[in-house]
Amino acid sequence: MPISKKPTTGPLLQVTGLNIATKDRSLVRDFNLTMDRGERVGLIGESGSGKSMTTTALMGLLPPGVNATGSVRLAGRDEDLVTASDRQMCRIRGNDMTMVFQEPLTALNPLMKVGPQVAEVMLKHKTVSGRREARDKAVQLLASVKLPDPAEAAKAYPHQLSGGQRQRVMLAMALANDPELLLCDEPTTALDVTVQRQVLDLILESVQLRGTGLLFITHDLSVVANVCDRVLVMNRGIVVEEGSTEEVFTRPQHPYTRGLLAASDLDASDENGRLFTVASAAAYVPPSIQDVLSTVPPSVLRLKTSASAAEESRTGGAGVDERPPSSGRRHGSELDVQPNDGGPAVSTGQEAATEPIISVNNLVRTYERGRTSLFKKPGEVNALRGISFDVHAGQRFGVVGESGSGKSTLLRILAGLDQPSAGSVRVAGNEVAGARESQLIELRRELQIVFQDPMGSLNPRMRVEDIIAEPLLAPGKRVNNALQRRQVREMLAAVDLPADSAERFPHQFSGGQRQRISIARALICRPRVLVADEPVSALDVSVRAQVLNLLSDLVDQYQLTLVFVSHDLGVVRHICDNVVVMRSGEIVESGSTEQIYERPQHEYTRTLVGATMSLRAEMAAREAALQH
Description:
Helices cover about 35% and strands about 20% of the residues. With about 625 residues, the chain is of the alpha/beta class. It is globular.
């Protein structure tokens, strides 16, 4: 028979004097938290601040060699969770308190279908009478998290679902036994903007419906503004500030909190037109509620409501928000594009007299799927469906779209790493279509790429000096070692890294520093075109601001043409002059940044703009909801 939970009184969670340490150093010091039932608390901070280690300790999942002291009490349980045995914690985890992790693919069992995984949580804690009830309730839970065709989804393995669908499965598992407390550790970091909005709406709806307490761990302040009522700010293992979301975000008391807010606010810039960072945040003035409401037009709030309803009917829910024009950033003329007409792009204005540095004409790329049957023809994937556009020298060109839109395929073809199935692609005078590898040497000198994951793109066994100098080792060119070392020192200085970095290895640097190394490597051969593929998506907000400032400065200093590929429309809006919006291998809308963001014409563009989260717009929407 299913067990019933005994009624409880007092606070839901009481954490007193929690300290976490290894033998050599302290990780979290004197952490205190009192949570009531149904309360939504945000725990924010950068990588290394101790927020994930804190939640791991609450769940009793600290790794070997890491120890906790202090007291953690959960309503309805007599045990102190810090000193509780593994057997006691196994009865609590998944039943009274559960966790949604950042990466669902690693948290789910890859060899087990998702329906049985959801059912297993209920069978383990005996909250259902038998396997049949567990199986039926698992399908109901998958339906409650708005998975399409939940009965069929229950029969799928995790790898057969998208990232957003896997995160929905994780949420269904977490809520299977109606826990009192739900911990979410960066649950939307790796998701597209519309999927992120859907998952956040779903989490909020689920905890409100059940009266579940929510502890939400993230470095994204706009997400906290959307979800949480109260905020704790952590820095180097210490809570430096605590208060209501409105109070902390509009009247921060601690310099670190002000720094996080400044770096998160892409609508604010310093006197030089650059994004604020934690180091330069002293001059940042947080917006008041009145400022927020005045800078986010009423039309944007209406767009939020209408887009949310439209996305709900189309995919299961996504909210809307939009930014006012960013200050301190230039905008170019409208992009020369004729989406999907198969004809050449037509130039207008002053740029018509110059030859475009990138010209894409009716580009098609089709892949063959693997055979699923001996007697059936292989299927086809139409990654690009006849797109055309021109980019002129000096433009900052943004390519936005969600996973599967064709962005990465386009990038690979521009870089000569893939060949088109049809159409023409010219980059800096080099024709990509049909070119042999030996004919692409000049293209590689003219175009360089900065990848999303710097650790994955840097050779861990090479010193930084050799990594940065590698593009200089072109076939047929003699190497002048003294000149090479001088150029490496110049590039390290250009990306604000000390000269002694040349002798170190990639693992000895932070994520932001590794991305600077990637940028230095890309620029050492003085390319004319720099392609940035999601270069800041894996970085903390303060490091993101630093890298965006650096990219903007270097583009101007070296007179580069920038192609910036991203799903984050807020970042693209800050750094790019012109934008194309891609969906399912097609360009659905194109034009200047101001036009795309302030007057989107296509329904999909409006959905993307609406789902993009900004700190000011989320606070404005929150205040507008309270007033109504």
